[in-house]
Amino acid sequence: MKKLIILLFVVCVISCAILSQKYFDNSKENTIVNSNNTLAIMVETGVGSGEYIESSKSFWPGDGYAYNDNLSWCENGSNLIWNEENKTLTLNSSLTDKCYIYFDLTSN
After folding, report:
1. 17 in a domain, yes or no?
2. For the segment 57-81, what is each residue's pLDDT rounded down to a tens digit?
3. Parent domain of 96
4. 26 located within any domain
5. What is the value of pTM for the model shown?
């Protein structure tokens, strides 16, 4: 009986570890959780055009796009910090905010 309990415990711990990695480590896909529309990803429509449209995708644009720090902003003044190496965005805020993240098209 003791061995069965230990075996069930080990299986439970391994299952929890696998599930937590699957659901909480989304850095490989750059998936963004945006359940209340507080983030708008704006992508440039043509190289150097200065015209942007809101992306309907739930991840950062990949190759051919560069984060635009000068245009990216938040309505309530929150601070955005882009990490180019990891392709991550940090939002420093003490209140609810809606942010607009701009990406320039660098190639076709």
Report:
1. no
2. 888 888 899 999 999 999 998 999 9
3. 38-105
4. no
5. 0.65
